[in-house]
Amino acid sequence: MAGHEKQAEHTKAEHTHGDNCGHDTMEHDDHVDYLHDGHRHSEHEDHYDECQ
């Protein structure tokens, strides 16, 4: 998938992004990505992908 580099360093069990997670959001196609420590996390199955 274009723009996706690797699986994020945290799992959904460790931290779930959502309305009150404290991270900024960014609309991306038909979903929302989360800005996390200088990179974007995109939900993918049971984990997040780090995106460029």
TrEMBL record:
It comes from the Bacteria. Residues 1-52 are annotated as: Disordered. This is Zinc transporter permease.
